[in-house]
Write a structure and sequence with these properties.
The chain has 7 helices and 18 strands. By secondary structure, it is of the alpha/beta class. A 6-stranded antiparallel beta sheet has the order 4-3-6-1-2-5, covered by helices on one side. Helix 4 crosses helix 5. The chain is globular. The chain binds FE2/S2 (inorganic) cluster (FES). FE2/S2 (inorganic) cluster binds next to loops.
Length: about 350
């Protein structure tokens, strides 16, 4: 199960005016717990004024081959008014200790031969940087097409890292940068990447039908538009992987189903179980957290997937789900932070 440990900050690198990369040292006795697959993220926690603030940030460094990691590097972009990102950009310094959850997330690509592509917006480059750099280093026959969009060159995160990859693998990495608020050299696209533009652009860039996996990451609008473009071009849903950063409150919530007057949740967590009454309107995660503060979560917004649990029995409705793939929901997984009971008894297993 995901756990927090205190890790020391080994470097703070300014990437743009509003973003940094934090490098964290993993002591040898914790290295196995922090082994990660390219594309995974870490939840960082800060308790300030009695409030537990958690945010997830993707790991941008390549995954070490075979060994457990001795460092982890994450990218953090400032979100206006963001409680954690403001602290990260303005206060975190060398030698500080941060509470860091063990890696989680299923927006991943374990290195494998084949042809892959990503469409990313803004800080959506972060997990994809780990995916591309690990893949190209480990799989000599793999190819990757990276389509990234940002506002301007100055606001683009990991500009140098991506340019270095392009220099190192000129034949196997195809890089297309689209800037929405800056004129580019002739021939390069500019403006926003929406469904219509992608539908026209993708077949010109690469043989769409030969791509083994598509990785879409960024704001909701970009990921949704890219998915619709790919589906329109005949790409199977199973080849599309997506991770959304920032979803506006109220986006695509499920219809309300009347809740039973009294319901209980039984949860198994780290080998131990318990049964507790669900209070009116609260999510199953909140019920579990009142009794087991160690229950895993980060965003509480249906985006990060940290609270994923297996629904052993009963029925729930989820307000929204931007984290689980359809195969996972069909297999019986739910997001506890978005789940409300539909039946009087619900049983969840966080250990599966
Ligand atoms: S805590 Fe992030 S999806 Fe539930």
């Amino acid at each position: 199960m995901a756990r927090f440990h205190r890790l020391r900050v080994a470097a703070v690198d300014r990437l743009t005016d509003d973003s940094v990369a934090l490098t964290l040292t993993v002591p040898p006795h914790l290295a196995e717990e922090y082994r990660y697959v390219p594309g995974q993220h870490l939840a960082l926690r800060r308790v300030a004024d009695g409030e537990d603030i958690r945010r997830t940030y993707s790991i941008c460094s390549p995954a070490p081959d075979g060994e457990a990691p001795s460092t982890l590097r994450v990218g953090v972009r400032l979100v206006e008014g963001g409680a954690f990102s403001t602290y990260a950009l303005k206060e975190i310094g060398l030698g500080d200790e941060l509470e860091v959850m063990t890696p989680a997330g299923r927006f991943t690509l374990p290195p494998a031969p084949g042809r892959y592509a990503a469409i990313v917006g803004g800080s959506g480059i972060t997990p994809v940087l780990s995916i591309v750099s690990t893949l190209l280093a480990r799989e000599p026959a793999a190819r990757f097409c990276l389509i990234r969009s940002d506002r301007t060159t100055a606001s683009t995160m990991f500009l140098e890292e991506v340019a270095d990859l392009k220099d190192r693998y000129p034949e196997r990495l195809q890089l297309v940068t689209v800037l929405s608020r800056e004129e580019q050299q002739a021939g390069l696209p500019s403006g926003r990447l929406d469904q219509e533009r992608l539908t026209g652009l993708l077949p010109v860039l690469l043989p769409v039908e030969q791509v083994d996996g598509w990785f879409l990451c960024g704001p909701y609008g970009l990921v949704e538009g890219a998915e619709r473009a790919l589906r329109g071009l005949g790409v199977a849903r199973s080849r599309i992987h997506q991770e959304i950063f920032h979803v506006d409150a109220g986006t695509a919530t499920a219809a309300t189903v009347p809740a039973p007057a009294h319901s209980t949740v039984t949860a198994r967590l780290d080998g131990r179980g318990g049964t507790w009454p669900v209070q009116d309107g609260e999510s199953l995660l909140d019920t579990v957290l009142r009794n087991r503060p160690d229950a895993p979560y980060a965003c509480k917004g249906g985006v990060c997937g940290t609270c994923r649990a297996f629904l052993v029995s009963g029925e729930v409705r989820m307000d929204r789900n931007f984290a689980l793939e359809s195969e996972e929901t069909e297999a019986g997984y739910v997001l506890a932070c978005q789940s409300h009971p539909v039946t009087e008894r619900v049983e969840l297993d966080f250990d599966r």
